[in-house]
Write a structure and sequence with these properties.
The chain is mostly helical. It has 20 helices and no strands. Among the domains are: 32-134, Tetratricopeptide repeat domain (Serine Threonine Protein Phosphatase 5, Tetratricopeptide repeat, Alpha Horseshoe), CATH 1.25.40.10; 272-347, Tetratricopeptide repeat domain (Serine Threonine Protein Phosphatase 5, Tetratricopeptide repeat), CATH 1.25.40.10. The protein has helices spanning 2-20, 32-48, 52-65, 70-82, 86-99, 104-116, 120-133, 138-150, 154-167, 172-184, 188-201, 206-218, 222-235, 240-252, 256-269, 274-286, 290-303, 308-320, 326-335, 342-345.
């Protein structure tokens, strides 16, 4: 009996030892790279929800945990762009490129920031790097075209827009801007085709209808031009540019009452719209309201002291009012590049 008791006690002690020796999971410790991914994902979710201030520290924490986290630098750069922190956003894009020389998206985003900041040369270089890395980057081609357009290099711009359209033919902006480049080269029919294609893709963009109206106006098809300006206005009721343009088309069609109404409306929506004042002065001149025409020209010059056509029109109105200072306005207009004013300066 004693032997059995000893054995039982020994067995129970052994069981106790075995029970207390079992493994217990107390906590899961993530590796730094896993923590970095978690912060990155949190930042991305906040960014997508447009919570940029909240997203920024998450991306920064991801980078602290994983200093070679290229996508985190890129995302933080995008976040900083939204927060108007352009200079340090560029630093993030550059770091992204340092870690991944094939990061066409970082070149593109860096170019966009430089374009916003008035550095077209730097932007162009970045966009060109983007298409060098990724030739099918249609948005980069498009922005290259825009920059060439602004430089008045219209042939190059058309070629760039061609590239963008070949890659993505479903973007109305690409067709619209190529049409505008063609107009600058007096290819009005080609412009009309492009504008119509843009409208077929997205008929809800008022500026395309406005541009198409201007193309038809240049062809002398005033009735059609007025119809497209009217469509633009129906899409954007305060579209002062379309009112001004429709007024000009009506002026050319000798509908001076209709033109005056449109110029008045343009000025109502934008009180510092110098073009509309000068155009209204031309209508008032036709209606022999010379005092009103003088007032409009004065207003336009107050808004823009370098507006040559305003000086030309004011000089013409002053002549009708027998104002001897008209010659000074003609000389000023010519100095500002209005060549037609030269004929009035010959004494």
């Amino acid at each position: 009996m004693k032997t059995k008791s000893v054995l039982l006690i020994t067995f129970l002690l052994s069981c106790s030892v075995i029970c207390f020796a079992q493994d217990t999971i107390r906590a899961i410790t993530l590796m730094p790279s896993q923590d970095a991914e978690r912060f990155f994902n949190n930042g991305t979710a906040k960014f997508n929800a447009k919570l940029y201030v909240d997203a920024l520290p998450d991306f920064t924490k991801a980078i602290e945990l994983k200093p070679d986290f290229e996508k985190a630098y890129y995302s933080r750069g995008l976040c900083r762009v939204e927060l108007i922190m352009h200079k340090i956003a560029i630093e993030d894009f550059m770091k992204s490129i340092e870690l991944n020389p094939a990061a066409d998206y970082s070149y593109f985003s860096m170019g966009s920031v430089k374009e916003l900041d008035g550095n077209p040369k730097g932007a162009l270089n970045d966009y060109e790097n983007a298409v060098r890395i990724k030739p099918e980057h249609d948005k980069a081609w498009y922005h290259i075209g825009v920059l060439h357009f602004l430089e008045k290099n219209y042939n190059a711009a058309i070629s760039d827009f061609d590239h963008a359209i070949q890659i993505n033919s479903k973007d109305a902006y690409y067709w619209n801007d190529r049409g505008s480049a063609k107009r600058q080269l007096s290819n009005v029919n080609g412009a009309i085709e492009d504008y119509k294609m843009a409208i077929s893709i997205n008929s809800g963009l008022p500026f395309i209808h406005n541009n198409l109206g201007s193309a038809y106006r240049e062809k002398g098809e005033l009735k059609t031009a007025i119809e497209f300006y009217t469509t633009a206005i129906s899409l954007k009721t305060d579209y002062c540019i379309a009112y001004n343009n429709r007024g000009y088309a009506k002026y050319l069609a000798a509908d001076y009452v209709g033109a005056l109404t449109d110029f008045n409306r343009a000025i109502t929506y934008q009180s510092d719209y110098a073009f509309a004042y000068v155009n209204r002065a031309a209508v008032r001149y036709k209606q022999k309201d010379y005092a009103g025409g003088l007032e409009d020209c004065n207003k336009a010059i107050t808004i823009n002291s370098n507006y040559g056509d305003a000086y030309l029109n004011r000089g013409i109105v002053k002549e009708m009012l027998r104002d001897n200072t008209a010659i000074d306005d003609f000389k000023k207009a010519y100095e500002l590049g209005v060549n037609s004013a030269k004929q009035y300066t010959i004494e």
